[in-house]
């Protein structure tokens, strides 16, 4: 595949906390591979994080470095992937402003992802305007870099749909192909449950295992995982469906035959939760120990991490600036051009 034919990838994370295993299985693992196959932009979405963190801005900005450390620790190579800070690319905010004119409040309120997030946060009708327009901001991020593919979880598919709606509407209005539609790239495991089994994994819900978790923290989390409450004795048949330990084994154990054998034994009876948890703990320890070690190396040189972010953001501004210039030219906002 030539450089010109490589797809362009845009992905990122809100900087509200360190990344966890849900992020890893949902997209981080794929991003490490994609950087060898595509032109990839990784966005640290601090501006979007501020939309529902009023008064907690310090946490948002501090976590820019934490998320960057997680990127580098899992194997993102800044020579192959462009890591940028959203708030430091003003072109994104300007493009958002133009796209906001192409969507109604009613359409934003119908977005299933936004509806779920509003309900989760208990906003009811007291919705911050910035949060309601989150899909437009995300569309600006995607289109500014002419992204053709966006790795997402299945809960983000409505955001991709809305992005493409805005792309088509803009191109139709200006009667030329300026912005590019994108395609969602789904992970085989699109959502990882929290260790409590009650919701998707989330740092804010306290049911996550972070990528920087210590060996002891991993063990405690695995031991506290929700299994089958009716599986009281080793000899009892157990239920695999809804059992968080098996959900994690499906996601992280590459030996599918071993997992299938454990499931069959668990369903028959004769396999205790402690044994299955021990298998999972060993797998997670093996996965996270090298990530944790690389993270410590980068933590010792935060100046280098900032230099990586500064360089990536500068490259991103060049690309976003070129797209914005085309958008403004299409809209006739070129008063001083010769």
Automatic annotation (TrEMBL):
Q: Which GO terms describe its molecular function?
A: ATP binding; tryptophan-tRNA ligase activity
Q: Which InterPro entries match?
A: aa-tRNA-synth_Ic, Rossmann-like_a/b/a_fold, Trp-tRNA-ligase, Trp-tRNA_synthetase
Q: Does the keyword Lyase apply?
A: no
Q: Which CDD domains match?
A: TrpRS_core
Where are the coiled-coil regions?
none
Q: Which PANTHER family match?
A: TRYPTOPHAN--TRNA LIGASE, MITOCHONDRIAL
Q: Which NCBIfam families match?
A: trpS
Quote the protein name from its UniProt record.
Tryptophan--tRNA ligase
